[in-house]
Design a protein that fits this description.
Helices cover about 50% and strands about 10% of the residues. The protein is an alpha/beta fold and about 200 residues long. The chain has eight helices and four strands; from the N terminus they run βαβαβααβαααα. The longest helix is centred in the middle third of the chain and has 38 residues, at about 110-145. The radius of gyration is 27 Å and the shape is elongated.
């Protein structure tokens, strides 16, 4: 048997990987063989994952807690699984899904069942990612419909803005002069002026 590896992924730097670390404890994984990425699983261009794959050799064993920690893209997960198990000859164990353990059932039927389970779980992982994006989009649309302002709060308009705007519209002062009085760039003044006018309609 070769070396034992563990792979952990969380989607952002703020997320805590402790739950996955605890799951991999007691599996005789050396500290230098535990790889952690803190970024999205939308693809496999992750520094620690790529470093780990370069180190993996035939008969090594790789543990991951769940299939979505490996990745989120259905096609990419299947391709990486093929590369690791077929090209590199590595065994993979997915702790949350005992059927995804390539050490057992290496006969035709075992491989067939493992491949079916992998395809189903990969599809579920990607489908969840699509659903999350859809829910986010629907949430944003609903918030906008309620008049909720999204993004950075607008900087308050300077005192006397309406008066300066009126003079600029009458041609009494130039846009540059108006922007200078309001202590903002000309482009910002024009944008805020347009926004102000839309709000009055």
């Amino acid at each position: 048997m070769g070396n034992i590896y563990g792979y952990i992924r969380v989607s952002t730097k703020e997320q805590n990987e402790e739950r996955q670390v605890l799951a991999l404890k007691g599996l005789q994984i050396k500290e230098e063989n535990l790889f952690v990425d803190k970024q999205s699983g939308k693809d496999f261009h992750r520094p620690q994952y790529e470093r780990m794959v370069r180190q993996l050799k035939k008969d090594d064993l790789l543990y991951v807690k769940s299939i979505d920690r490996l990745g989120r893209s259905y096609g990419d997960i299947l391709e990486q699984w093929r590369i690791l198990t077929k090209e590199k000859g590595v065994d993979i164990v997915v702790l949350d899904m005992p059927l995804l353990d390539t050490r057992w059932g290496k006969d035709l039927m075992g491989t067939f069942l493992s491949d079916i389970v992998l395809q189903i779980l990969s599809f579920v992982a990607e489908n969840e990612r699509v659903n999350i994006r859809q829910r986010q989009a629907e949430g944003i649309a609903a918030a906008k419909a309620r008049g909720v302002h999204l993004g950075r709060p607008a900087t308050p308009l300077p005192p006397g803005f309406e008066e300066v705007l009126g003079k600029w519209k009458k041609g009494e002062i130039t846009g540059t002069q108006a922007a200078k009085i309001c202590k903002m760039p000309l482009s910002t003044f024009r944008y805020r002026a347009e926004y102000w006018e839309r709000g009055k309609k």
